[in-house]
Write a structure and sequence with these properties.
The protein is mainly beta and 189 residues long. It has two helices and eleven strands. It has an eight-stranded antiparallel β-barrel. The radius of gyration is 22 Å and the shape is globular.
Length: 189
């Protein structure tokens, strides 16, 4: 009878002890399978598209989103628009000034659930200027790969890129489309 009482007491104690919080899942951005694409209006006629070929980063995200961290780095000089002269101009002081500012970075400050999406607040640093941004991120994957996608718009003038604005030759609003495929850190390329 005493052993049954001890068993019930032990069971009651186990039920009352809170379960440990789930540890964050660590992911590394797979630069080979990730894309950073942008579009901007040209001569107020049509949207022009380009991309950045080098993206890296780490994402730590688990059940407790208050502990989530997202850190992404894009090599500014990896910009590609299918025209060598234009690429050279974009890398120069009128735009990204990649010699002085070789990286575009994003670091999250808050991650929360928003329906089926993630609401991510953070700081985008481009051309030496840091600005707060908020984006909606969709995610998918499994325990071997994770995917994170977002589309958002920034004003390039807020980052010191004013070339072509005066006569509306190049639009101020730039839409960024980012799709990250991530793997556990040891598997990232």
């Amino acid at each position: 009878m005493k052993s049954i009482a001890v068993l019930f007491a032990t069971c009651a104690w186990l039920v009352s002890v809170p379960a440990p919080a789930a540890l964050p899942q660590e992911w590394a951005v797979d630069g080979v399978h990730s894309s950073v694409v942008f579009k901007v209006r040209h001569a107020d006629t049509a949207s022009f598209y380009g991309s950045f070929g080098k993206v890296a980063g780490n994402i730590s995200i688990g059940d407790d989103l208050s502990a989530a961290k997202i850190a992404i780095t894009i090599a500014a000089d990896s910009i590609e628009t299918r025209d060598a002269g234009r690429d050279k101009h974009l890398k120069g002081p009128d735009f990204f000034d990649t010699k002085q500012f070789p990286e575009i970075t994003f670091a999250s400050t808050k991650v929360a659930k928003d329906g089926d999406m993630l609401a991510v607040d953070g700081e985008l640093t481009m051309r030496g200027v840091k600005k707060p941004i908020s984006v909606k991120v969709s995610r998918g994957g499994n325990d071997q790969k994770a995917g994170f996608e977002t589309t958002f718009t920034v004003k390039r003038s807020e980052f010191g890129m004013n070339y072509g604005l005066a006569k509306n030759g190049i639009g101020d609003e730039v839409t960024l489309m980012i799709s990250l495929e991530c793997t556990p850190p040891k598997a990232a390329k």
